[in-house]
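Section: Multi-chain targets

For targets with more than one molecule, the full set of components is provided together so that the structure can be written out for the assembly as a whole rather than chain by chain. Components appear in the order listed by the source. The example entry contains two components.
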Amino acid sequence: MESYVQILGSSSAIPAWDRYMSAQFLNINGAHCLIDCGEGTQYQIKRFKVKASKIDYIFISHLHGDHYFGLPGLLSSFNLLGRERPMHIFGPSALRDVLLSINKASKVINSFPIYFTDTNPNRYETILETEFFSVHSFPLDHRIDCTGFLFKEAVGEHKLLADKLPEGFPYEYMRELKKGKPVKWQEKVFSPDDYTEPPAAPKAFAYCSDTAYTESLLPFIENVNLLYHEATFSKNDFERALKTRHSTTLQAATIAQKAKADKLLLGHFSIRYKSLEPLLTEAKSVFDNAYLAKEGGIFTI
Amino acid sequence: MESYVQILGSSSAIPAWDRYMSAQFLNINGAHCLIDCGEGTQYQIKRFKVKASKIDYIFISHLHGDHYFGLPGLLSSFNLLGRERPMHIFGPSALRDVLLSINKASKVINSFPIYFTDTNPNRYETILETEFFSVHSFPLDHRIDCTGFLFKEAVGEHKLLADKLPEGFPYEYMRELKKGKPVKWQEKVFSPDDYTEPPAAPKAFAYCSDTAYTESLLPFIENVNLLYHEATFSKNDFERALKTRHSTTLQAATIAQKAKADKLLLGHFSIRYKSLEPLLTEAKSVFDNAYLAKEGGIFTI
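Its structure, encoded as tokens over all components, is:
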């Protein structure tokens, strides 16, 4: 199955026009992640029939409430449902304090372990590497410490052209070939170039939640297949974007263009816009392959 | 306008069957209150067009997440909308710590003052008295500290029978009569019995959020016009109620009967019940004037 993102919330700051607060579900190479978790995320998870119990990783970009006020409730529900598998949470260190004060107040003992990793708001860091994918955080330019996240599929295995191999070819050598390594058997060298097809190019998804226009993030998101970049404001509200450290549609599109992204996903819309189509039109004037992050929408990476 | 309660959430612990977490809007003698504030309350406030900006008082019964995880988001939205009028919050003292840790993490400076009053989980206390109503907290029997709330309308003014008064009767003496006090004018005593109609009997509403069956709360809720009492479980799940310090339908109805309440409102339903009608039938077998606290439902006091 292709990696994909499903939008759970697209509103900035305050819920409006049936839009929920920031949250995205990510299935990357079969691993299940939640990115940001605004209030009501667990309702949206139910609404869109996301398999919440399979989520193993939660990434919180920053500690403005519209990006994490749904997290305590989600963790509490996991607990009440008797979850046992560990949860890995990545976010600003102060999030740990907030969760601890909430747990202390409720006197609840979690049914599952939570492993918390602090993100570093000042530089690019690899924060997770598994067999299937890796995650990297990088600084955004917002009013408080805020990080973007880059999700990269791990390089897959080569596909073995088994018909081409001689009879009796050992299984353990096949595994080496699938890893792309040449092997020697019965005095002959078997190159992966001849006996395998190379794996598909690994896909990458970058998530830039809340940020002013900044080209400093370009090195981290270059050539991504899918770029989510906030577009809180219309190009006409440029001054407001500057003041609040947010971006306009044109700025998001410019970043996508300069990063040579394949596809751009716009979100985090201000409540001042009831209709979002004009925002999309603005972005498309700079970067055509742009889409609106509407609730429930699924985007392959 | 008669005092009334509007239900914003009726689910216990976890959202299910389109039921939201505990929250009720109360209009008492024109004052606007919110009682408990589970996750998603601000969405429900929008959905039912409750005038949120007029809410001046918030009462939190205890610190299980399903009763207050919507509070940080609601306060944050008030802030973003530039609210200036003070908010008065009443709840367990640990709530103060949670709100402080959240505020510290977001580095947000509130646009409005918050006055916080600790509730006492161990005894009956008057926690608020205004010209229009008073509020009293009392202990419930739950797994953690938890208080119920009794809301009482203030005694209203007498209605002046102005036609009966002689010409030239001074305005300041009219005001005394409206307060129910006799006055002497031109050597004659004017009794409120003769020149006014007495005010309507003040109404009372009691809110018992999460509690095991306990007759210890009867003195505090005697003769209330409307009693909200949790009924998390069916009578058949009696053991489960006992273990989790919750009540069954029959227990809630028995409390209403013993308290001589006029009307009983059942809520905080476990996710195990999709249909609530059987729960209502159970309660009615003991106390007939019983209702389900369904989302959006309005109940006069």
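Chain B has two domains: 4-156+201-300, 159-196.
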